[in-house]
Amino acid sequence: MYATEFQTIIDKPYIQIPDYEAFKGKKARIVILNIDDNSKSDIDKDDFIEKLTKNPINFPKDFKFDREEANAR
Description:
This protein is mostly helical. The chain has three helices and no strands.
């Protein structure tokens, strides 16, 4: 997999892709993040943690978690 990250100012409806030839004809996922946005996120981190602690996940008694199996590749 080949990945690239770049920053640009969007002033036209089209964005030039650096190293276009490496991506030509390939599937790609495009993510646009507004890095100038200082507004608060929809989920306040403290509120999120509080919700998790008040509503724990109840696993069945016979649930077995094997860290080695989970990390196996």
